[in-house]
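Much of our argument rests on the idea that a fold can be written as discrete symbols. Part of our work consisted of pairing the sequence of a single chain with a tokenised description of its backbone. We regard such an encoding as a compact summary of how the chain folds. The amino acid sequence and the backbone structure tokens for this protein are reproduced below.
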Amino acid sequence: MTPETRNPSGEGYLLDNRQAEAGRRFTALSELFDPSTFRHFTTVGVGEGWRCWEVGAGGPAVPSWLAGRVGPSGHVVATDIDTSWMRGAAGFEVLRHDVTADAPPAGGPFDLIHARLVLVHLAERDRALRSMVEALRPGGWLVLEDGDPALQPLICPDEYGPEQELANRLRRGFRELMRQRGADLSYGRKLPRLLREAGLTDVEADAYFPITSPACTVLEEATVRQVRGALVAAGLATDEEIDRHLAHVAAGGLDLGTAPMVSAWGRRPMP
């Protein structure tokens, strides 16, 4: 679930894992989306002995759940460009890995490959998708989950006052920064088609997004603090506007949502 927002212009990551706010974002994202992710794992039948590859894991929550599910006869490898938030993790293998450039990790072919909030940010997302499909065993499942900010662009869907208008304006600035760094803001809705075009069968999909949750508040505060400098430098917001918005968030009166998380899954055909 690492937003691997590599900037083609060379300006680095928009959401850098090395920043302190990254840990708070990982925790909030887990609280918001892990139940849905784990439901999809159950749907495709993850069980004892499965070999699983968690792509762009970020933190340990998802690979830890998978490790408990596959048991000692299975194997889970969690990869990321930055593995610092998985130090000391037990029960699964941790590997520094770039899914757009490196060969799939050893241990395959895999019964399950999963990526959440990864491909939407990658400039070479098509290459990454091909690499994952090729690493599946026949009959193995690919589960991709990505946001679609263009499908529901408002962080405050009920824009009834100036506080909500400011929140949505800052969110538009954040989306513009993502776009400049190569993110596809309508990627989530494309996942079912892309899985079919990659040759997978039994493709299904659904979408989920909360519109009011304490975790949404935590996520927004951490995200805004993380991109504050980039918003100001790009002329998309002022420090005063960001301070005012953070005060509104802290006061707890905003019904904050997320972009829809589209989940799609399909399996590699048997020979």
User: Anything to note?
Assistant: The longest strand covers residues 136-147. The helical segments are 21-44, 61-70, 125-134, 162-180, 191-197, 214-233, 239-251. The beta strands are 51-55, 75-80, 93-96, 110-116, 136-147, 201-208, 261-267.
